[in-house]
Amino acid sequence: MKLKITFLGTSAAVPTIKRSLPAIAFQWKGKIMLFDAGEGVQRQMLKSGLSILRVKQIFITHSHGDHVLGVFGLLHTMAMLGRESLLEIYAPRDVIELITSVIKYTGRDSAFKVILKQVHEGIIFEGEDYLVKAFKVDHGTLEAYGYVFEETKALGKFDVKKAEKLGIPKGPLWKMLQEGKDIVLENGRIIRWREVVVPPKHKVKVVYTGDTKPLEKTIEYSKDATVLIHDSTFDHTLSKEAHEQGHSTSLDAALIAKKANVKSLFLTHISARYESEKPLLEKAVEIFKNTYVAQDFMSVWVF
Amino acid sequence: MKLKITFLGTSAAVPTIKRSLPAIAFQWKGKIMLFDAGEGVQRQMLKSGLSILRVKQIFITHSHGDHVLGVFGLLHTMAMLGRESLLEIYAPRDVIELITSVIKYTGRDSAFKVILKQVHEGIIFEGEDYLVKAFKVDHGTLEAYGYVFEETKALGKFDVKKAEKLGIPKGPLWKMLQEGKDIVLENGRIIRWREVVVPPKHKVKVVYTGDTKPLEKTIEYSKDATVLIHDSTFDHTLSKEAHEQGHSTSLDAALIAKKANVKSLFLTHISARYESEKPLLEKAVEIFKNTYVAQDFMSVWVF
Question: Pick from A48, A182, A238, B231: CA 20 to 30 A from residue B267's CA?
Answer without folding.
Answer: A48
